[in-house]
Amino acid sequence: MESMPLYQREAKLRFGGVSIEEIGEERRRADAALAEVEREKAASAMAAEEAMAMIQRLQREKNSIEIAANQQ
């Protein structure tokens, strides 16, 4: 093991039965999952904003139609 470069020796170290490489890979997977959740969160927020805008537009149209109907 002494002939290995330091970074390889460090990568093979184990903490509680888990190697640094495994911890790093798990961290990369967690980071990727978090990024995906953030993208989904942003898409969901945008869809909610669009839905609220449509509801408000339809309410305004309904009010206009009701006002016009009451004036006749």
From TrEMBL:
According to the UniProt entry, its GO molecular function terms are: myosin XI tail binding
For the GTD-binding domain, which residue ranges apply? 14-72
What is the annotated localization of this protein?
Membrane
Any idea which UniProt keywords this protein has? Answer: Coiled coil, Membrane, Transmembrane, Transmembrane helix
Q: Name one GO cellular component term.
A: membrane
Q: Does the keyword Nucleus apply?
A: no
User: What Pfam families does the annotation carry?
Assistant: Zein-binding
This chain belongs to the protein called GTD-binding domain-containing protein
State the species of origin: Salvia splendens (Scarlet sage)
